[in-house]
What we know:
Layout: H1 2-31, H2 38-55, H3 60-83, H4 91-113, E1 128-131, E2 134-137, H5 138-160, H6 162-172, H7 174-179, H8 184-210, H9 219-230, H10 235-255, H11 260-275
Antiparallel strand pairs: 1-2
Amino acid sequence: MEVAQLLISGVSQGCVYGLIALGFVLIYKATEMVNFAQGDIMMFGAYVAFTVINIMGMPFVVGVAVTFGAMMLLGMTLERTLLRPMIGEPPFAVLMLTIGLGFLFRAVAGAVWGNEPRSIDTPYAGQTLELGGVIIGIENLAIIGGTAVLCGLLFLFFRYTNLGIAMQAASQNQLAAFYVGIPVKRVFSLVWGLSAAIAAAAGVLVAPVSLIEPLMGFVGIKAFAAAIVGGFGSLPGAIVGGLIIGIAEQMVGYFLPPGSADVSAFVILLAMLFLRPEGIFATLQQKKV
């Protein structure tokens, strides 16, 4: 029973890591930039949802839709105003810019909403379900179900829509995509918007479980590890890597001494870098010079 409980908790936590890792992978595949502010964008999205649902009183579903739209607009604005001028600059400069963005988001969140933990009013808050003697929080099921639905929608989007296909083409070969008429810059902007919306989804899903506070974005470090474990270029790998780290954390925290769970993600990351540096799903290709 306890193992089953840990497994469900690990899967739900891994889904959160996986969703944030999806944002890392989407941006990297399209622009070859690594956005280390992805976790803080998740935090900011959770606060936006708290504002429109708890403070403004919007129905939960409507508030979530408004949050997604606002965060997509924010992601596109960041790309247009801050990241696009950095194209061609050294990767270290882009890295420092995104780290600085993370500090900015945390400062703004603390100034606007304060440092007191918050929670989003959800229709399923506090509800549980018992299956075979295992008590499961509906919040955990919502995280798992929401992640599954979101991954399904992304699959359909990239497989069957012209915009999704254009995004894939631009991520594989920017110059060829430009020559066939794809507006590459606009596609990059949409990728940043989509990754911000996905991060907001992670924030909304995890808020009833871990609460919202300005430092919750540091979970993005573990999500980055998940992206590397899965293969830093594979969308399915991001989810798989997140699940591996989420389940490992729960199991290690139960069977090993206190504090072991916090470092388990990085132990897995180091082991993967030694054994299979390209990750579980190796999709990155070396460029010829």
